[in-house]
Amino acid sequence: MQLQTEEILCPFCKKGKIKCYYIPSFWQEKRSVTATFGGKRNLKRTREKYEVQVPCPNCGKSAKEIQKMLDEGITDTDKEKKILERLKKQGFSGEIKTKF
Question: Do the domain assignments include residue 61?
Answer without folding.
Answer: yes
